[in-house]
Amino acid sequence: DAKTTQPTSMDCAEGRAANLPCNHSTISGNEYVYWYRQIHSQGPQYIIHGLKNNETNEMASLIITEDRKSSTLILPHATLRDTAVYYCIVSGSSNTGKLIFGQGTTLQVKP
Amino acid sequence: GAGVSQTPSNKVTEKGKYVELRCDPISGHTALYWYRQSLGQGPEFLIYFQGTGAADDSGLPNDRFFAVRPEGSVSTLKIQRTERGDSAVYLCASSLNGAEADTQYFGPGTRLTVL
């Protein structure tokens, strides 16, 4: 399974953009990049996913490098409620859809 | 609409006892997943159902763990002869059909404590 590398923790000021990096240098051609987050004592929440192109939805933007070996999740205007653990996951059909979670990045949004 | 629900939310049991954890997926979702999350760690995959059948049970740690989904909707995770190391949050997720790029929706989890 492809593995991901994320910083253990990051801080962000409220109202500013939060940019969370992820390295996935062993990603294969049919694997997607997913981002989930987990707020304390809740189940993980889907944020966004992509294959090759950059993606944007109401929650965030996902920027994937051309070689697909890394990506960045962007929360454009972070709020205190965005404080959570953010997981970058690569997964494809060979994995039967199961998600392999790493340790994630703990994002602390500060007032 | 209703999301994934799990019952009970908390379960305290004694070492050696048998427990059952229940998951109600989103209506119409054929794919169902169980994960386990220990304190300070990311969720760890246990088993994946496509309909009624277990399509991938490679994450079950040993034969004390078993899961069923007899009618292709509700699933039960069963743990026999519980051990203190089984203490964790057990998470359930469902997705529409388990295809690649299919979003998984997670329930709130069941916190299992084995004394």
Walk me through this protein's architecture:
The complex is a heterodimer of chains A (111) and B (115). With 111 residues, chain A is mostly beta strands. Chain A is 0% helix and 45% strand. Chain A contains no helices and 9 strands. The radius of gyration of chain A is 13 Å and the shape is globular. The mean pLDDT of chain A is 92. Chain B has 115 residues and is an all-beta fold. In chain B, the strands form 2 sheets. In chain B, strands 2, 4, 5, 6, 9, 10 and 11 form a 7-stranded mixed beta sheet that branches. A 4-stranded antiparallel beta sheet of chain B has the order 1-3-8-7, with no helix packed on it. The chains are: A mainly beta (111), B mainly beta (115).
Summarize the helices and strands and which ones pair or pack:
The complex is a heterodimer of chains A (111) and B (115).
Chain A: E1 9-13, E2 18-23, E3 32-38, E4 45-50, E5 55-56, E6 61-64, E7 70-75, E8 84-91, E9 105-110
Chain B: E1 5-7, E2 10-13, E3 19-24, E4 31-37, E5 44-50, E6 53-56, E7 65-68, E8 75-79, E9 88-95, E10 105-106, E11 110-114
Parallel strand pairs in B: 2-11
Antiparallel strand pairs in B: 1-3, 3-8, 4-5, 4-9, 5-6, 7-8, 9-10, 9-11
Helical amount of chain A: under 10%
Structural class of chain B: mainly beta
- N→C terminal distance of chain B: 37 Å
State the order of secondary-structure elements of chain A, H for helix, E for strand: EEEEEEEEE
Principal-axes geometry of chain B comes out as globular
CA-CA gap between termini of chain A: 38 Å
In this structure, how is the largest beta sheet of chain A organized? 5 strands, mixed
What is the β-strand count of chain A?
Answer: 9
Number of helices of chain A: 0
Helix-strand makeup class of chain A = mainly beta
- The overall average pLDDT of chain A, rounded, is 92
**Helix percentage of chain B:** under 10%
Overall average pLDDT of chain B: 95
